[in-house]
Amino acid sequence: MTALRIAVPCGVAIALALAAFAVGPQAFEAVSLLAAQDDPVAIADHAVARSFDATVAAREIDAALAANDADLAQGFLDLGRERNLPLDPALAHRVERANEEAATTRRSLESFARGFVTGEPEDGAALAGTAVGDLFVFGDVRDAVRESVRFASGQQGDELILGLACVGVAVTAGTYATAGLGAPARAGLTLIKAARKTGAIGGRIAAAINRSLREAVDWNALERAAGKARIFTPVASVRAVREAVKVEKAEGLVRLVGDVGRVQSKAGTRAALDGLRIAESPGDMSRIAQLAAAKGGKTRAILKLAGRGAIMVTMATFDLAMWVLWGLLTAFGLVSSLKRTAERITERYCARRRRLRAALAAQ
Question: What is the DSSP string of 183-222?
């Protein structure tokens, strides 16, 4: 019976020790994620550490080069170097050559002109052309006229692009008035319009932008202006649009486009467009802006690698808390079992010593 009293808690301790090996890592990971749930940079580092190694880096770089995406290939190369991964020097040379080819003068000029005229940037040079067009109001007026014509003729227009173009006219005026202090917001509007035109924007964040536009734009005034054909003449259209936009009611939208502009300035055009694709709310874009400020050109590679897991804890907080609880219960049970085992071993030892003393005294 004495041996059984020792064996039971000892067996429980062994079982809990084995359980701790299984539960412990998950519990520690849950604790770290709960502590970092408001820090997108820490979340991104955790996601990259779990899934990024030299093999993944080589595969992603090869895929980016095959798709003529030198920017993404460079991002993965920089991410691999940051984590001290053993990358093939020949692979790095291929990335450098791809970047040199992408930066050729003729190609850049063609992209700039295409972006200026169409407002649909495909790369950094095209975005520069689009941004220049918007900064001189031409781009916003072009988009406003195009969508207004569609609505007036009974065709299907895009209310979001029309609203963004209207806000863009007001923000551009603010950019001039503040000597460029509103430039991130101006660039952000350009990018959101481009993302909408190319379908590279999530449905949820588009709905959030639409809600903000309904508050910031007086659609009745805009319709009246379009009905009088004033929207189709450049000078009158700018005046009508500015009168229809209530900038004081667009604070949330201005913050959002400012975050998009900051992502573009820190991590590049394609990173900002990729961010708009995975973002579901303005808060997500704020997190991506924080990530871009810390990771720069590596941001796009991180977003490609981890998706929303780069900015948000993908596991539910309740599930993480349960892992922490199970870890604590396992640790408590293990300590309790070891304590009980030690007590019963001590009890047996003391009983044995008493019996020996009694036997010696009886002699």
Answer: HHHHHHHHHHHHHHHHT-S-HHHHHHHHHHHHHHB-HHHH
User: pLDDT at residue 117 above 60?
Assistant: no
| Residue 89, both tokens | 């020097």
CB 332 within 8 A of CB 52: no
Q: Are 52 and 45 in contact (CB under 8 A)?
A: no
Distances (CA, A) of 328 to 26, 323, 342: 12, 9, 21
Between helices 138-152 and 124-135, what is the axis angle to 10°?
80
Which phi and psi angles does 138 have, rounded to 5°?
A: -55, -45
pLDDT digits (tens, 9 = 90+) for 22-51: 766 666 666 666 666 778 888 888 888 888
Say if residues 27 and 327 touch (Cβ distance below 8 Å). Answer: yes
Instruction: Provide the residue count of the chain.
Output: 363
- Structure tokens of 131? 């941004």
- C-alpha separations of 215 from 140, 250, 313, 356 in Å: 19, 7, 32, 91
d(CA 216, CA 220): 12
Lowest mean pLDDT among 6-15, 124-133, 229-238, 323-332: 229-238
Residues 6+ apart with CB under 8 A from 79: 48, 52, 57, 298, 301, 302, 305
Q: Which of 101, 77, 102, 79 is nearest to 90 (CA)?
A: 77
How much of the chain, in percent, has pLDDT values that exceed 70?
A: 65
> Quick one: how far is CA 101 from the chain centroid?
29
At a CB cut-off of 8 Å and minimum separation 6, what does 81 contact? 87
Residue 230 pLDDT: 46
Q: How far apart are CA 120 and CA 136, in angstroms?
A: 16
Q: For Cα atoms 37, 41, 43, give the angle at the middle one, nearest 5 degrees.
A: 45
pLDDT tens track for 52-69: 999 999 999 999 999 888
R_g of the chain computed on alpha carbons? 31
